[in-house]
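Reopening this ticket.

The earlier resolution said the output was attached, but the attachment link was broken on my side. Pasting everything inline this time so it's all in one place.
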Amino acid sequence: MELKSDRYKKARSGPSRILRISCRKCGAPICLYQKDGVGNLRRMYLDRIASPEVPTAGKALVCPNAHIVGMRTIYKKESRPAFRLIANAVAKRPEKAD
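Inline output:
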């Protein structure tokens, strides 16, 4: 996965990185995600999700074993569709970018 560089990335300070996201309860893989800037992962923007292992078209982000890890929302500051993550529902592991 290559890092995207657009106005959203430039608006956040700090480095961008690729994270492998998985369900904390069962360990099932969910997707690769580009995290821009510093801070906790509280929401996942749909345009930053790469190679999803689960459907991202529904109202909720659900792992393959039916654990709900996030709910679809629109981030009002930027009018971007995103999944608001449930606290401690996902595990993150850094990956190397191409």
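Reporter confirms the inline version is readable. Residues 7-95 form one domain. The beta strands are 16-23, 29-36, 43-45, 49-50, 60-62, 68-75, 80-85, 90-95.
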